[in-house]
Design brief:
- This protein is mostly helical and about 200 residues long.
- The chain is about 60% helix and about 5% strand.
- It has a two-stranded antiparallel sheet.
Amino acid sequence: MNTPRYQLDFIQAGVEQLKDYLFSDLIYWPIGIRAVSGHTAYPQLTLGTLILFLHQAEPLSIDSKSKTELSGYKNDIELIRTSWQAHWRRKSQAEFIARIKLWRDFLQEYRKDPEGNFDRYEYEVTRRVMLEWLGQESPSLKRPELEMLESLDLLLKSLFVHGAFIWGQNLKSEFPEEVFWYLYGKLPVTWPGSA
């Protein structure tokens, strides 16, 4: 389990590099920090990962120092977002397109080999979570990308086994089931209808 400090260190590094990242041609930006021993390695900086870390840090930051620090980072991010809105939107759209392809690829791999891929769902669904936010940040997404997301959601719903929230109860408040329904269950071990 990653700690509030783990989340906040990534957010701090992300804020410090955010403007340079927005002005770069990269979708995935090397964050340049290492997680302390016992923690998961940090992902590369993207708008999706930054927003994810913000949402994960919120319920984990229970002491006043962490809450104040997180609030400051949120303000910094919002200032950068509004100051460089065109760059933010371009980056969001580029990441949306990259992530939807990865999400599609995972679902296709699952379809070919459910037993070999069902256990990847908890990790892979992170992409679908990011697509939720990136879509909101990308008002100029084209019809094909939006239709692809709808199509992938229909496929997922046809396979999905509804159940408990998969990311731990302490994060549940940040991911309401009405929006993030795909975090409340899993994929079956075998393709539905196969014997």
